[in-house]
Amino acid sequence: MPLLKLWNSLRGQATNSAPSHPGDTQAPLEKSTETNQSSTGRAVKSAPKSTFGIFRGGPHSPLQKRLRALSVSSVLEIGVGDGSQAVAVMETLSGQSDTIRYYGIDEFEMAGGVNLKEFHQHLRNHNIHPRLFPGSVDRGLMQIAHTVGAVDLVLVADSGLLDEHPAIAGLLARVSHPATTVLVSRDETWVSMQVSTMHASREAA
Fold it and tell me: Helix %, strand %, coil % for the chain, to 5?
């Protein structure tokens, strides 16, 4: 009998200490791995996007950089494009004053450009109240000379206009005073242009 009891005792210990199935030991490890992968995935998704792009200059940044050194109360833009430049210019200058007047000369849809009504609304949406002179540049400059007078800043978007029509320079002088800044876009660079206001004042007299 003692030998039988000893045998049974040894069999019971062997049975209780037998290793579990391979799947039982791997399940907790797999679960832990899945948890780590899930945690890693959430970390990637929640990682903040780089904000470097917001500090890059926009298409009008060279012009805006030049305007920061100016103090003006009136702006004339010749060739208004899609309106984005007007917004950029006025936002830059508004740091000096919130009463800057904006004037624009363009043929608009008559020359296949932006729609006059849409352009006007676009500027109004940015709290800019423009006074626009649709039509040819020479006609618009004459109207400004007779109704507005001299302005502080003139922006000419197309230098070819001055190259093809030299008389435009004389008309620019009629809407300028001695301290007026005239900037012309030439080869994607804004360059200063000197106009003879003295000659223009003699003609007006």
Answer: 55, 20, 30
